[in-house]
Specification:
The protein is 24% helix and 32% strand.
């Protein structure tokens, strides 16, 4: 078990390989289909910095945040997978979700020293390890808004790193 605390350094991510089991603690961002394209548009337009949300060394968890808890959504949905490269370039070091991703996405991760980790869909367990939750952008999207949550010991398996994938 490799224990990691956000924000991650370049060295934290460079040491990871496919199949490693990690335990993540600290603050992570949560977003999925509705919000990730919005972040990418703001990054492209150069307006993201106005939000005051630092992506450097961060984690983006592909999930909605509801009163029932959090659980991974499929990361290979077009709106989600197409965000990997832009978010990695902007500083996100770990994309957390579930499902197989395309070879070109695996390469984009490697090019930006970022990884993709899969997390089992165990909402009840994750809820007990979610310490706080805060909507930080687009509250009108409800549970699909951009959230920042504080977590303790989220366990995941590295599914794509250094140009390799478990799929």
């Amino acid at each position: 078990m490799i224990r990691l605390t956000t924000p991650f350094s370049e060295e934290n991510i460079a040491q990871l390989k496919v199949g490693d089991v990690v335990s993540i603690s600290g603050f992570i961002l949560c977003g999925r289909d509705a919000v990730l394209p919005r972040i990418c548009k703001e990054l492209e337009a150069g307006t993201w910095d106005k939000r005051g949300i630092d992506l450097k060394g961060g984690v983006i968890f592909h999930t909605a945040v509801s009163p029932a808890g959090v659980g991974p959504t499929s990361s290979n949905k077009l709106e989600i997978e197409s965000s990997f490269e832009a978010l990695s370039k902007a500083g996100i070091k770990m994309h957390l979700g579930k499902g197989a991703i395309k070879p070109e996405t695996v390469k984009a991760l490697a090019d930006n020293n970022a990884v993709f980790a899969i997390i089992p869909p165990v909402t009840a367990l994750l809820e007990s390890q979610t310490l706080t939750r805060e909507c930080v952008a687009w509250p009108e999207l409800g549970m699909e808004a951009l959230y920042r949550i504080k977590v303790e010991n989220y366990q995941a398996i590295i599914a794509a790193a250094k140009g390799e994938s478990i799929y």
